[in-house]
Design a protein that fits this description.
Layout (H helix, E strand, L loop, with lengths): L1 H9 L10 E5 L2 E3 L8 E14 L1 E7 L5 E7 L11 E2 L4 E3 L4 E8 L8 E14 L4 E6 L9 E3 L9 E3 L1 E4 L5 H10 L23 H10 L2
Parallel strand pairs: 1-12, 2-13
Antiparallel strand pairs: 1-3, 3-9, 4-8, 4-10, 4-11, 5-9, 6-8, 7-8, 10-13
The structure holds calcium ion.
The site of calcium ion (CA) has 8 residues, from helix 3.
Length: about 220
């Protein structure tokens, strides 16, 4: 009786598995000290994935701000302990996107990746001053950003875009900023160019960045 009670209580409280996520590390690079001509590097990460057999990402960026110069699998990438294959990346600095992926090579028995880790590393040459998201294409096979399991099924996951800014702010920005302060998308005074940290509001954290980057 006691055993049955414990089981019936325990069942509803079993923890949901944590969400599978593809994201950029660091999530934001906001630094006016980074001049045109310098190189930045970001890692594309996956968290909490189960039975990963193949992955691909397509990432858009503003090519007047950043040009991708290299995409590579760093030594500790998620498939480093497996037989894997990776085609050459597609880098398009005219259209402003990069496509890259890798797959485990089929074997019997098949071992796949479960856990969290780095998918790939992207290096970019800074072309100008300004800002750009590092924006994932829609998460689906058609959208070209996806995680696939051994049965060729799409692994449910979400994506979180990265962001780069080396923008310097001047007096005109300060005027715009004061008008947009306190706004969120949909408000009459919403101004995305004052949303320096690329979240969903213009607030004190943007003011902090404005102060830091004023010049
Ligand atoms: Ca903001």
């Amino acid at each position: 009786m006691v055993v049955i009670l414990i089981i019936s209580f325990a069942m509803p409280f079993s923890l949901a598995s944590p969400e599978t996520k593809i994201y950029v590390e660091p999530p934001r690079i906001i630094n006016p000290g980074i001049s045109p001509g310098q190189t930045i590097t970001v890692d594309i990460m996956v968290a909490n994935v189960t039975d990963l057999y193949l992955w691909q990402v397509k990432i858009y960026y503003n090519a007047t701000i950043l040009n991708v110069t290299a995409v590579e699998l760093p030594p500790n990438h998620v498939f480093a302990d497996f037989d894997y294959a990776a085609p050459d990346p597609i880098i398009n600095n005219t259209g402003g996107y990069v496509v890259f992926g890798a797959t485990i090579v089929w074997s019997e028995p098949l071992f796949t990746f479960t856990g969290s880790g780095v998918l790939c590393r992207i290096s970019c040459r800074v072309m100008n001053r300004g800002y750009t998201p590092l924006h994932f294409s829609p998460y689906s096979f058609q959208g070209k950003t996806f995680l696939q399991d051994r049965n060729s099924a799409l692994i449910p996951a979400s994506t979180k875009d990265g962001f780069f800014s080396n923008k310097l702010f001047g007096y005109a920005n300060l005027f715009d900023f004061s008008k947009a302060y306190g706004s969120k998308p949909g408000d009459a005074n919403w101004n995305p160019s004052c949303n320096f940290n690329w979240d969903d509001k213009v607030d004190v954290s943007d003011l902090f960045l404005l102060g830091k980057n004023y010049g």
